[in-house]
Amino acid sequence: MKRSGRWAIGLVIAGLLAVAGWRAASHQQQKKQAMAAASAPLELPIQIAAPEVLALQPQQLALTVPVNGVVQAVNSAVVKAYVAGELRGFKLREGDSVGKGQQLAHIDATEAEARWRQARLQAEAAKGQLAIAQRNQDNNAVLVQKGFISTTALATSQANLDSALANLAAAQAAADAARKAVTDSVITSPMNGQIAQRFVQNGERVGVEARIVEVVDPARLEIMAQLAPADSVQVQLGQTAELLVPGAPQDMAAVAAKVVRINPSAQTGSRTVAVYLAVPQASNSDGSQRSLQLRPGLFLQGSIITGRSSQLAVPLTAVRTDKPQPYVQVLQAAAPGAQQAPLRVRHQSVELGRQTPHQGATWVQVLSGLNAGDRILAGSAGGLREGTAVEILAPAHASGSAKAEGR
């Protein structure tokens, strides 16, 4: 056989061996892929109820300013002692109602009454001296006309008369002051109201200007709040507010108030501005919620409504903070444009604005990071790992599944 024939046969055999090796390697690779696919866990999407998926749209939200305030009475007074002595007859306690002019207690006025008697006797003596001086003046005037005495004696008697008049006026003034001290020993209420606080006990000796009791009028109340400098520029007269006692029951209606006064100057140290909100006397509750019984000294929290605007916002419960930046869980298709592509969870960082109550919950303004039409998971859906496949259950499917579980 020729050498060229042997070479051709060798090439053919080498080619057949190469093809056989490639087929064996390809078969082995397909077998490995099949085994890997069979051993890999099958990813099942997490089923989410339709109400737990929110489609973002601009909301008509109220622009609010947070406010913390203390309830105080418009009319209140601290009754003090105007004379020193032992306090007696003080039987009223906190919560007792009193009327204007009602006697609350009295101070032992033994010394004051003695001084009053002394002043009255001195006034009577001065009145007697005045009568003597007046008779002398009248007699001297007649004698001068008849020429029995000189005009110098008449001038002297006139000076004595003037001195007696001054002494009588001084004695009467002292008697009036002593009488006022006796009157001031009786402590009365300056207005209608209730006893809010007792500062002393019956039988104690009190001094002048000592505080005895505080009387407040609960019929007219207001809320005094301190606003931060940035918030104070947004508050104006006539704006409304809603406040509640921290920790109050859910069925307790919020207190509606109205801004009636704003302090013209800020506090020296904190730079806060005091605002005063009037509280209506009658509750405007519709009956489904209990009205809050306000009392002076109660601490309230709430917000002042400064306006309304359309803005993109999400429920505060949908914002997660387990990362350095706050984010929301956005649902988006794994392959854009694909109709049957599963939805995947993506953690989208957001820049948040102010918070405001809306639809019975707290919503927060989204300044950047989201667009209208984006679908996010509500807070009730819980936290999901980024990239998790999600399947949204239709309302009918969800109700059918619930019925099947009930059976």
TrEMBL record:
What's the name of the protein? Answer: Efflux RND transporter periplasmic adaptor subunit
What NCBIfam families has UniProt attached to this entry? RND_mfp
Q: Which InterPro entries match?
A: MdtA-like_BSH (IPR058625), RND_pump_MFP (IPR006143)
- The Multidrug resistance protein MdtA-like barrel-sandwich hybrid domain extends over 76-206
Keyword set for this entry?
A: Coiled coil
Starting at the broadest rank, the lineage of the source organism is:
Bacteria, Pseudomonadati, Pseudomonadota, Betaproteobacteria, Burkholderiales
Instruction: Write out the coiled-coil annotation as residue ranges.
Output: 154-181
- Tell me yes or no: is RNA-binding among this UniProt entry's keywords: no
SUPFAM superfamilies documented for this protein:
HlyD-like secretion proteins
Q: Which family does it belong to?
A: Belongs to the membrane fusion protein (MFP) (TC 8.A.1) family.
Pfam families the record matches:
BSH_RND (PF25917)
